[in-house]
Design goal:
The protein has 475 residues and is α+β, with helices and mostly antiparallel strands. It has 17 helices and 15 strands. It has two domains: 176 residues, D-Maltodextrin-Binding Protein, domain 2 (3-Layer(aba) Sandwich), CATH 3.40.190.10; 212 residues, Periplasmic binding protein-like II (D-Maltodextrin-Binding Protein, domain 2, 3-Layer(aba) Sandwich), CATH 3.40.190.10. Helix 2 links the parallel strand 1 and strand 2.
Length: 475
């Protein structure tokens, strides 16, 4: 009110001055007595501003597949790396605590620890693991939609093909961090020592046919001196892609038809491919006991230089470097080559390993879910996702990630992937549900396959019938 009275006074004064400036002077009238000012009303009391309430503390449980003591490709412990990243995040997000642990690993590569927590109703909030393992929780309708965790710019950075297998309709149940490559790794030192290096494929394509592969395989195989050409294993579902990637060299063999939602690996073309593979077994060109071997019991053959060629390229590149650095494995020269292709078929594309992804279990607190989305958004940004990818010996999925390698063991297969395309040896994309059960059925089929006198057609027929029964029962 005081301000209003003051303003009226100012206006009156200005009006008087303007009138005086705009007209000739005239005798001023006798002043009249000004009215007595009216008393201003007593000011109302303005309440003091209330302090903004601090957000409620939030603890986010974040599990990554692995075991305590596991290290990144450069030797850094994953626990140390995650500790540094989460400390950085928590400092810029007051009230948020990230409870991190490496969980889930056991000798068979299962998720028993996670499954137990889920059954007890205490799953982690965020789970980071390979897509096929996270997918089984989506099959059980246990995961949140992660679309809100990505901005429009984030979505532009992902190729649609990279996220296709992470969606159920429009729901994005996982976000990929990295991918890899399953080509063949060859211990060139063994071939050099045997004087057989001329049998290996040459650059720039490093391609060969199945016939050329068999010639090299038979030449290097020397069980008497504990050197085998190659190895396969079927004791668990782990690394079934090492077998499946061979099918890329037989392009008419289609493992699964996503359009019809049917497994078709019992076709004539697939029988031809698996008959070729069983020939490696029949000729004794592989480490014995494939039906019972798993990855943990196969790796020592490579590290001890008792096997010359294997089909999980970036994995054996990674563990060789770690072993040499730790002094537990001898240095050797090795190269990457394509899986052999059937004569007359195109050069085999590189098998792309299953990406590592983030999944989020269902939440009941909207405020906590929002905080979880924010953390996932932070972790999938290009700089951090690239560190995760390199730590696993893989490549980041985001197209805007800065990633360049001068290491031929990484650069050459990436060039090959661009040149010859990629192949999905996991067949998880397009599978509507129960992929874990299908993988179990496939592992048991492979265990029967690596036996004397295996009936290839009958085994594949039985698998197809069983697998199709699994996926046709999807809800």
């Amino acid at each position: 009110m005081k301000k209003l009275a003051f303003l009226l006074t100012v206006i009156t004064v200005l009006s008087t001055l303007l009138a005086a400036c705009g007209a000739p002077a005239t005798p001023a009238p006798a002043p009249t007595e000004a009215p007595a000012p009216t008393a201003a009303p007593a000011p109302t009391e303005v309440p003091a501003p209330t302090a903004t309430a601090a957000p409620a503390p939030v603890t986010i449980t974040y599990w990554a597949f692995g075991s305590e003591g596991s290290a990144m490709a450069d030797g850094t412990l994953w626990t140390d790396w995650y500790g540094k990243i989460f400390k950085q995040y928590q400092e810029s997000h007051p009230g948020v605590t990230v409870d991190f642990a490496l969980k889930g690993y056991d000798a068979s590569g299962s998720t028993l620890v996670v499954d137990t927590a889920v059954a007890a109703g205490t799953p982690p909030d965020i789970y980071f693991d390979t897509k096929f393992r996270v997918k089984k929780y989506q099959d059980a309708k246990l995961l949140e939609d992660l679309t809100p965790a990505l901005t429009a710019d984030d979505l532009k950075a992902y190729d649609a093909a990279a996220t296709a297998g992470s969606k159920s309709g429009n729901m994005m149940w996982s976000i990929p961090a990295d991918g890899g490559y399953w080509n063949m790794i060859v211990n060139k030192s063994l071939f050099d020592a045997a004087g057989k290096s001329d049998l290996l494929p040459k650059g720039p394509d490093y391609s060969w046919t199945t016939e050329e592969f068999m010639a090299a395989c038979e030449a290097i195989n020397d069980p008497a001196n504990k050197v085998y050409c190659t190895a396969f294993f079927a004791g668990s579902t782990s690394m079934d892609s090492a077998t499946n990637a061979w099918l890329a060299g037989f392009p008419d063999c289609k493992f699964f038809d996503p359009t019809a939602t049917k497994y078709t690996v019992n076709s004539a073309a697939c029988v031809e491919a698996f008959t070729f593979l069983h020939g490696i077994y029949e000729k004794g060109l592989m480490v014995p006991g494939a039906a019972g071997l798993i990855d943990d019991t196969t790796d020592p053959y490579w590290l001890d230089q008792q096997v010359a060629i294997l089909g999980q390229g970036n994995w054996y590149d990674s563990i060789t470097k770690k072993g040499v650095a730790a002094g537990t494995s001898k240095a050797r020269d090795y190269i990457f080559v394509q899986f052999p292709n059937k004569p007359g078929s195109p050069v085999t594309p590189v098998g792309m390993s299953n990406p590592d992804v983030w999944g989020v279990f269902k939440q009941s607190d909207p405020a906590k879910l929002k905080a979880i989305y924010d953390l996932v958004q932070f972790m999938q940004m290009p700089d951090i996702a690239t560190q995760i990818a390199i730590g696993w010996g893989k490549i980041p999925v985001r197209s805007d990630a800065t990633f360049k390698s001068d290491d031929p063991s990484v650069a050459e297969p990436l060039a090959a992937a661009r040149k010859f395309g990629s192949y999905d040896p996991y067949f998880v994309n397009g599978v509507p549900c129960n992929y874990t059960e299908v993988r179990t059925a496939w592992s048991e089929t492979r265990q029967a396959f690596w036996q004397d006198n295996a009936d290839v057609q009958a085994l594949l027929d039985a698998f197809v019938e069983r697998a199709n029964g699994i996926v046709t029962s999807c809800p």
